[in-house]
Amino acid sequence: MKVIRGESDPAFAWTPDLMAWIDAKARVAGFDATGVAPVYESGDDLAQRDATRFSDWVEAGRAGEMEYLKRRDENGVLLRSGVRAAIPWARSVIVCALNYNAEAPSSIEPAPTETGWIARYAWSCRTGEDGQTIPTDYHDELLSRLRRLEEVLKGRTECKTRCYVDTGPLVERAAAAHAGLGWIGKNTCVIRQGMGSWLLLAVILTSIPVQADAIPAFAADRCGSCTRCIDACPTDALVAPRQMDASRCIAYLTIEKKGKIPEELREPVGRQVFGCDICQDVCPWNRRAPVSVKQGMEPRPELVNPPLEWLAQMDNAGFRAAFKGSPLERTRRKRLHRNVAIAMGNSRDRRFLPQLEIWSKGDDEVLAESARWAMRRIEETSAD
Ligand code: B12
Ligand code: SF4
Ligand code: SF4
Is residue 346 part of a domain? Predict the structure, then answer.
């Protein structure tokens, strides 16, 4: 293949053929689907529409305490509201999706009351040479695949690139929709026909423009009249189709929220101790979602319906041994235990009272208060 040199060769642009080429290369790198979308100038109608959606969302307070989503540049523009403000040379975005669906039960299937739920994306691990389980984090797994793809692209043409998994100045789901990868479901997730929504996204911004006749069409919206996700959401976080109040979402409450979980939301949090899969588990498009476990994304059976007692007895060393390198590491032991205390209360199982009693007398005020709440909940239930 001829290598074209020069800073973003003006003769080089995304054509349908080149898009098929990058899709094939992305599959070799370990992704399941890829699309390329133009990055529009800030004045463009489509860019304006996306920017307004994001700004309205932040300004309505939907981001809760996730300060990184509220960062602004020196002109007061929200950094994630439009790529070109932050990265003026960006002309296109390659959006890659990796299917992480594993052969395992879902969160809405009956499970023993003494167990909790950890979100599917956080089950991942790789198996070491001596057979031991090494926890992994999708950020690292996707980024290393993305770097391989970036190298392949740079071997074909000189261009500027930047790789991101979660951290870029853009809304990845909106980029995925523009790249034609899938539609944005009423649960706000990207759903791809034939694949469902158990997809993780990763993006490469590039300085390569998209040829006008290669701009992908939006995928058809196939939610129809279904509202299962909205009806099933325990905390009413899906305030309207495709609109989430993240400050009510269990994923936010259990992963991102520091301090106490608001009391009125503790009961609806149920048994989720890290993240939440409910609005995807009820989605009919996930009923026949293919299972595709990639190297480094193998599920850890012990994290599927984990016993609350097992999580509760972990000291710092035990927590590190179980979760170092996994997405749970960020939440730290104390926040996980806060969530476990709430799940114990919601289990209404008296066997948890001794553990809750210990926590209720500890130095960590957030954990102690959550444990006292859980004890009251169990006692109230027993008195019913
Ligand atoms: C902050 C964040 C969260 C927050 C807020 C979620 C939210 N809905 O905004 C919390 C902590 C709650 C969260 C939860 C989860 N997250 Co999250 N999260 C992010 C992150 C870092 C930023 C998202 C963001 O900017 N939100 C702001 C709102 C406004 O954006 P949005 O919901 O994406 O909605 C936009 C689009 O829907 C768009 N839109 C609506 N209609 C239409 C129509 C068209 C045509 C277009 C173009 C756009 C459009 O407008 C909205 C505003 O721009 C992204 C990674 C990233 N950098 O984008 C991952 C990301 C969205 N999360 C992801 C995942 C996997 C999850 C969880 C499943 C994890 C879990 N099991 O607990 C849950 C899913 C909950 C849910 N139903 O969304 C994946 C989603 C993959 C997918 N298939 O959609 C992402 C992309 C991470 C990744 N790298 O793969 N997450
Ligand atoms: S992830 Fe859970 S809490 Fe968040 S919107 Fe979906 S069902 Fe509701
Ligand atoms: S549950 Fe129904 S409404 Fe919700 S995302 Fe899936 S198909 Fe769309």
Answer: no
